[in-house]
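Quick note —
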Amino acid sequence: MMSVQERLSVARPPALAPCRGAEANRPPTALILGTGDIASAIGRGLFLRGWRVVLLRDNGVPVLRRGMAFDDAMEDGVAVLDGVIAVPAAAPGALPALLSARPGVVVANLDPAVLAASGIDRPDALVDARMRKYAMPADLRPLAGCAIGVGPGFVAGGNVHIAIETLPGQEGGVVTRGSTAVPTGQAVPLGGAGAERFVYAPIAGVWQPEVPLGAWIEPGTLVGRLGPRRLPAPIGGCIRGMVRAAPGGVARGSKLMEIDPRPEATCTGVPPRAQRIAAGVEAALAAQRTINVAMAAAG
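Predicted structure written out below.
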């Protein structure tokens, strides 16, 4: 069995479709699965490096840290993350014009109709950053010049070309052979609080928040209602994350809210962990571009 060090060793990555694409003046295109904080950090970083970026919302994966993500663009018409804006593709047919104009990161629903209307037959990069810890991802390699999987469940050379580690302490590590680490099942502590900083759904039901994102609360404060149940805050602090009201209901065990007890807590901006993971994706794609240029020069 390969050690963590072997799995994180950076070897020669697989060939990526040239970043300038078939059209000499076309920027490279990245499709990113997910609209949460990690997917948004990746999209923001690639956009700043000249990529055309589309984030695809998976409605089966509710976004918790909405102030640290582009997800709210779908409801609000725009979202801003550390100086980069995101705009929604309100209809499938709007995507080609938005990609051409490149006003910011584009957010759309993960829907076959959207992809069919996009005109993107094979993106330069496809990044699955939905962070579905216990899912069994399909093989993404036939779908893009370079398929990258972020977090558990991905196998470099198996279901993706390159995988990115998200294990605490190793975030952003580039895996070019083998799998990423399995989930530990433990929450990364913030201000000494682990799993107790989250509010989970004790039953399935309709979710209605009672406090706004970013509010400072005391332990025991009523933070929301789930069907007939009143949900109190398990600890005091800043509401760092909160899924939108869900009239259609949420599943039992879903994360509904995150509370950060640190005095310096915030609910906006790119969090450090997401930045490290995004840097890993950027490094992997930048290395691939260097290899492509060298190969092209060698003729």
